[in-house]
Each structure stands twice: as structure tokens, then as C-alpha cells.
Amino acid sequence: MQTPFVLPGDSLGPTSKFRPGTGTHQHASHLYASLLGPISRSSTPATAAPPPPAQASSTSASKTPSLPALSIARPSPSDAGPGYVFGRSSTTTLPEVNSVVLGRVVRLRQREAVLEIRVVGEEVLGVGGVQGVVRAQDVRAMEKDRVKVGEMFRVGDVVRGVVISLGDQSSYYLSTARNDLGVIMATSEQGNAMYPISWREFKDPVTGSTEIRKVANPV
């Protein structure tokens, strides 16, 4: 049986059933993936450390059931060569029209955002990935003429998109116009991981400030 594969931002389960492990984070009583990779569940629930003798009597009555941990493992450097795919043989995978891809914004231009595509479907590409471009007219379905690419995306954002054209020899053309497409992970100007609060805003949990993005709804 193949290990389930998750992408950053995927919902993993409620904190009432699982506790966060490596590569996950908690928000609003739910666990989410922070990394892309295979997810594992600890076979033995963690046990709480025994309380100091002076507190033993007062804490013994407040024991809570221990929960299994969910963790996401990074690929090892030896596995991360070109064409590496979790749980599959090393074959080169390239996007096709209608492929859902995951990439990181590496450059912003006035009318387009350039992404390094790292995941095609559930297959992880090798180091370097391939290049994708989201043009201003493909960012959203409404008010296309008012799109400012520099507000919709920032360098470093992780974006979920769909391939709409094979483009030219150097780039694939992507769209984020569907509700489930757009930015799934973003870092604030202060360097803190943010969470989405609406279809157009992320919030910094440390400073409380918000930043505009083209936000992907949870899937």
C-alpha cells in the first residue's frame, strides 16, 4: 500500500484525534501539512512525562488520553535527483494541459508571475523543477483588467495552479482563476508563516497584519 502523499496546506485531521509532528502545523483545532511529502502516523501514541512528586497528586486526576502523531518526511538528498517520485520509479514527469501543479514564485514581472513547478499531480519533480507562468489575465475569473500581479503573489509564495497551455519551450502557462487555485502558503514581510482569512487575504498570527493575495480555497 502506497503512503498517502500530501501537499502544503492540505487538511490532515482534527487535533481531537491527532497531535502535530514534524512537517505539520495546527490552526483552529485542525492539523495541516507544512511540507510536501508522504505522511506517516506514529504507531505508538506519545506518553506524557511524569509530573514532579510535589505535583503528582494534583495532576493525576487531570490526565488526558495521548494521541498518535502525524508527520511528513522530507525526501532524502539521495532520492531528490531528476524525476524522483515518491513511491515510484525514477521517471521524468512533465505537466500536461489540465494538470494541477504546485510551484513556488521565484520572480515577479509587471504582467506575470514566474513559478518553479515542483509537483505535478502527486508526483514530485527533481531539483529545479520546470518553469510555469501565471499571466495577469489568468490570475482570476473576474475583473481581469484590474489585476496587479504584485498584489496577488509575492516571491516565495507556494501556489496551486492548473496548466492551460504548454506555452513555449521554456515555460508552461498556468491559471489560478478557479476558487481552489491560488496561494496556499505565504510568508509575511516580517518572515512569519501566515494563514488565509478570506479569498483575498492572509494574516500574520504574530503581528496581526494582513496581506493581499489570490488565495486558494481549501480542497
Can you describe what's shown?
β12 (158-165) and β13 (172-175) form a beta hairpin. The chain has 2 helices and 17 strands. Residues 56-62 and 77-91 have low confidence and may be disordered. It has helices at 56-59, 149-152, and strands at residues 5-6, 11-14, 19-20, 24-27, 30-33, 37-41, 69-72, 100-109, 112-120, 123-124, 130-135, 158-165, 172-175, 182-185, 195-198, 201-203, 210-212. A 5-stranded mixed beta barrel has the order 8-9-11-13-12. Strands 1-6-7-3 form a 4-stranded mixed beta sheet, with no helix packed on it. The protein has 219 residues and is mostly beta strands. Helices cover 4% and strands 36% of the residues.
Topology:
Layout: E1 5-6, E2 11-14, E3 19-20, E4 24-27, E5 30-33, E6 37-41, H1 56-59, E7 69-72, E8 100-109, E9 112-120, E10 123-124, E11 130-135, H2 149-152, E12 158-165, E13 172-175, E14 182-185, E15 195-198, E16 201-203, E17 210-212
Parallel strand pairs: 3-7, 11-13
Antiparallel strand pairs: 1-6, 2-5, 4-5, 6-7, 8-9, 8-12, 9-10, 9-11, 12-13, 12-14, 15-16, 16-17
Question: Which features characterize this protein?
Answer:
219 residues; 4-stranded mixed beta sheet; mainly beta; globular; 5-stranded mixed beta barrel; single chain; 36% strand
